[in-house]
């Protein structure tokens, strides 16, 4: 069995990113779209931590902390918007929210 | 090193399996539970790479904070109606084709550039202090301004989400 190198982590991260992108692009439920965004941000974090480990420094981990902070802010605001939308339109399906579409 | 490989593939399986279940389940609660499994797999990967602080942050913040928030919102909005309808939008074929194209592109880059990824083979010097101490050192010496800006971002997000979710201000 080959030892685990940075490339393994990069491949895993790329796969996670693609799965998250498929979720964002194909699902109709907004809650699951937000979850897929969390998957994408986690893929980025795996990349950052892998390079940080390979270089023997912790700067990448610092950046991963900032990405996590962004993910928290995004989830809070996104779910707040979702609640406001559900109160007005009674739906959580992304393609039924077309107020701005003419 | 064999044990490292075994754990890497175990956590990779958890991560990818949880992710695939997350985007395919009909019930949003099942999706959330699968996402928790996936996030725990990512936390294990952090531990494998000696990022112990991020491991703790991942579990406390993601699994304990964000996922509870998601589950709360799933309980608040009525998803029974949404679960009965079509789960995927009409352009899912186009989306899959586009994502497959991006995947092929990334794979091609990995294949052509594999010689530049020799980083993993270098011997990492043994850490003289713990991971948390090192992160605190770098974070509060070199990245203090971004740290403060992040706190302002969180404040804005808190105010913004309360304004969004409240019926009458």
Word description of this protein:
With 102 residues, chain A is mostly helical. Chain A has a single domain, classed as Helix Hairpins, CATH 1.10.287.3510. Chain A is 76% helix and 0% strand. Chain A has three helices and no strands. The longest helix of chain A is centred in the last third of the chain and has 31 residues, at 59-89. In chain A, 54% of the residues are buried. Chain B has 169 residues and is mainly alpha-helical. Chain B has two domains: 1-87, Four Helix Bundle (Hemerythrin (Met), subunit A); 130-169. In chain B, helix 1 runs antiparallel to helix 2 and helix 2 runs antiparallel to helix 3. The radius of gyration of chain B is 21 Å and the shape is globular. The interface between A and B is large, with 74 and 88 residues.
Question: Which labels suit this protein?
Answer:
heterodimer; A: 102 residues; mainly alpha; Helix Hairpins; B: 169 residues; Four Helix Bundle (Hemerythrin (Met), subunit A); 2 domains; 0% strand
Radius of gyration of chain A: 17 Å
Largest interface: A-B, 74 and 88 residues
The tally of structural domains of chain B comes to 2
SSE order of chain A, one letter for each helix or strand = HHH
Oligomer designation: heterodimer
User: How many discrete structural domains of chain A?
Assistant: 1
Q: Bin the strand percentage of chain B.
A: under 5%
Give the integer mean of the pLDDT values of chain B: 87
Q: Can you count the helices of chain B?
A: 7
The count of helical stretches of chain A stands at 3
**Would you identify the regions of chain B where 5 or more consecutive residues have pLDDT less than 50?**
none
Low-confidence segments of chain A: none
């Amino acid at each position: 069995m080959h030892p685990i190198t940075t490339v393994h982590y990069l491949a895993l991260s790329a796969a996670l990113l693609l799965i998250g992108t498929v979720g964002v692009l194909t699902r109709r439920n907004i809650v699951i779209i937000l979850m897929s965004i969390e998957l994408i941000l986690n893929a980025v974090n795996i990349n950052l931590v892998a390079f940080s480990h390979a270089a023997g420094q912790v700067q990448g981990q610092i950046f991963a902390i900032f990405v996590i902070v962004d993910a928290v802010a995004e989830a809070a605001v996104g779910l707040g918007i979702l609640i406001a939308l559900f109160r007005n339109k009674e739906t959580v399906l992304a393609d039924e929210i077309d107020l701005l579409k003419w | 090193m064999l044990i490292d490989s075994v754990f890497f593939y175990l956590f990779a399986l958890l991560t990818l399996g949880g992710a695939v279940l997350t985007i395919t389940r009909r019930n949003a609660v099942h999706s959330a539970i699968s996402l928790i499994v996936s996030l725990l797999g990512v936390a294990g990967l952090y531990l494998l790479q000696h990022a112990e602080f991020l491991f703790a942050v991942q579990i406390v913040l993601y699994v304990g904070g964000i996922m509870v928030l998601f589950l709360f919102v799933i309980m608040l909005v009525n998803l029974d109606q949404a679960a009965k309808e079509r789960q995927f939008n009409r352009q899912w074929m186009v989306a899959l084709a586009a994502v497959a194209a991006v995947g092929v592109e990334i794979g091609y880059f990995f294949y052509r550039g594999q010689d530049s990824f020799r980083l993993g083979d270098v011997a990492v010097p043994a850490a003289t202090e713990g991971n948390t101490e090192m992160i605190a050192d770098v974070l509060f010496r070199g990245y203090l301004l971004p740290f403060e800006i992040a706190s302002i971002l969180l404040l804005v997000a808190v105010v913004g989400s309360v304004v969004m979710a409240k019926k009458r201000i």
